[in-house]
Design goal:
This protein is α/β, with parallel strands linked by helices. Helix content is 38%, strand content 20%. α2 crosses α6 and α9 packs across α10. The relative contact order is 0.13. Bound molecules: nicotinamide-adenine-dinucleotide (NAD).
Length: 500
């Protein structure tokens, strides 16, 4: 039975949608309803955007160090509530408790890191061409940001967007994935408690579709920061492109771990199991391909199959569980649909491959951790994002072939190489067409102080996190102050381009 009802947060008040409709928030491990959430309409989106627009003028003038103080307080509250937040996250989207704690920790790290930007946000002061003239640049906020987020990191990813947007003086309308309204509400509650003025952050709950389109098209939304699937990202970019709106898009991946013939195979194996099956393979950086040099392939496959078969499925709150459910029935069906596709194309299911139908597992959206072998680089399972606990092993004969296979996908998020050869490692670091590269570590586990994002169709060139995040949520303004008291023409205009 539902115990909690989750509401929108608009103009500093918790409110139900104008339609009065609600949707269910369920535990993917057993189908239990853990909460109901208000189902927003386009009228609610309008109210949220109007509220953000009204708050913008005072928030952009609110001193940035003071904005930072609010974020520091928010970080401290998160730390205090870490265990409760993690527990609710596991109930809401299924990942095992330790990983939920990691998700919250990443949100804390990001919040503290960005809070410090309240006292930085450096611009340049440079020498001017002319005497008695000052030349400098400073960051300017965009205005109202739409933050549209996925369910797989329901706490961390919203902080990646909301914290830099706020510190730079933007106001925000936050639309989380409909699978994870509870964690979104918790994040907004924390920022409210930390003292964020009303209207600066607004929350609208509900499924994407019409709601998302309306938000993206709204004339008062200046920038859309989106993380999610490539299909939705392309759709949003198309609408925003016509309206000349700024978009930051972080999309899908088909990440790979390369294991060369000089690698420590057991170390690689640990990295593969963690990266392929952690969060049930639903991380954007999940290792859904393993590219194995033929010198180590047999040994690696034998061990990987053994390890995958031993992983225990279960509820993410149980300490015995290695792998939780996938997020929904639709996700479970999608993962299962790839098994016949793989076999038809000539791959072999060496471990897993089934949806469990017995006992408690039958009530949830589980899929066995699956290893596919005999996979060729152009097969669908080696090209498409399955987003479940499935990894495909592709064998290669050389470093050259490994790099070629790695880059043979439209995506470019994360990659990893296991090798003891320094030359191979550096060659890989140079040639991998991915925004994140690991050497002797799996494809998951990025740190927030470096840029996060992908090349090629994984995004549109922007990066989250690190200093790069500031570039998404601000625009450069170049300022010239002439204090000579006379008209001075810039070098390009004076005396045929010669310096005066
Ligand atoms: P999704 O595209 O289905 O949904 C993402 C968000 O977009 C949700 O809030 C959804 O409600 C909203 N949405 C849906 N239709 C919309 C529309 N027409 N207009 C506006 N918003 C709309 O993605 P998902 O299933 O929630 O997330 C999984 C995907 O996210 C995977 O492809 C994964 O690789 C990707 N992802 C990428 C990164 C990254 O940084 N590159 C990080 C995490 C997840």
């Amino acid at each position: 039975m539902a115990t909690t009802h989750l509401k929108n947060y608009i103009d500093g008040r918790w409110v139900d949608s104008s339609s009065g409709d609600a949707f269910e928030d369920t535990d993917p491990a057993n189908g239990d309803i853990i909460a109901t959430a208000t189902k927003s309409t386009t009228a609610d989106v309008d109210k949220a955007v109007e509220s953000a627009r009204r708050a913008y003028d005072s928030w952009r003038l609110f001193p940035a160090p003071k904005r930072g103080e609010i974020l520091y307080r928010a970080g401290a509250i998160m730390l205090d509530r870490k265990d409760d937040l993690a527990r609710e996250m596991t109930l809401e989207m299924g990942k095992v408790l330790a990983e939920s704690k990691g998700d919250v920790q990443e949100g804390i790290d990001m919040t503290y890191y960005i809070a410090g930007e309240g006292r930085r946000q450096f611009g340049d002061v440079v020498p001017a061409e002319l005497p008695s003239k000052w030349a400098m640049s400073m960051r300017n906020p965009h205005g109202v940001i739409a933050a549209i987020t996925p369910w797989n990191f329901p706490f961390a990813i919203p902080t990646w967007k909301i914290m830099p947007a706020l510190i730079l003086g933007n106001t925000v309308v936050f639309k989380p994935a409909s699978y994870t309204p509870m964690l979104a509400v918790r994040l907004v509650e924390i920022l409210e408690e930390a003292g964020l003025p009303k209207g600066v952050l607004n929350l609208v709950l509900g499924p994407g579709g019409a709601l998302g389109d309306h938000l993206v098209q709204h004339p008062s939304v200046d920038l859309i920061s989106f993380t999610g699937s490539s299909d939705t990202g392309a759709h949003i970019s198309e609408i925003a492109g016509r309206l000349l709106k700024r978009v930051s898009a972080e999309l899908g991946g088909k990440n790979a771990i390369v294991v060369l013939d000089d690698a420590d195979v057991d170390l690689a194996l640990d990295g593969i199991v963690w990266s392929a099956f952690g969060t049930s393979g639903q991380r954007c950086t999940a290792a859904s391909r393993v590219i194995a040099h033929h010198g180590v392939a047999n040994d690696l496959i034998d061990k990987l199959v053994g390890r995958a078969k031993k992983l225990r499925l279960g509820h993410g709150l149980e300490s015995t569980t290695d792998v939780g459910p996938v997020v929904s029935k639709a996700a479970q069906d999608k993962v299962a649909s790839y098994m016949p596709i793989a076999e038809k194309e000539g791959a072999t299911i060496a471990a897993g491959g089934r949806v469990p139908t017995e006992g408690a597992l039958a009530k949830g959206f589980f899929h066995e951790p699956t290893v596919l072998v005999d996979v060729k680089p152009n097969m669908r399972v080696a090209q498409e994002e399955i987003f479940g606990p499935v990894t495909s092993v592709i064998e290669v004969k050389s470093v050259d072939e490994a790099v070629k296979v790695l880059n043979n996908t439209k995506y470019g998020l994360s990659s990893s190489v296991y090798t003891r050869n320094i030359n191979s490692a550096f060659r890989f670091m140079r040639d991998a067409e991915t925004g994140i590269v690991y050497v002797n570590a799996g494809t998951i586990g990025a740190e927030i102080q470096l840029p996060f994002g992908g090349m090629k169709s994984t995004g549109n060139g922007h990066r989250e996190a690190g200093r790069a995040a500031l570039d998404v949520y601000s625009e450069w303004k170049s300022i010239y102050v002439d204090y000579s008291g006379k008209l001075q023409r810039a070098q390009m205009d004076a005396d045929g381009g010669k310096a005066p």
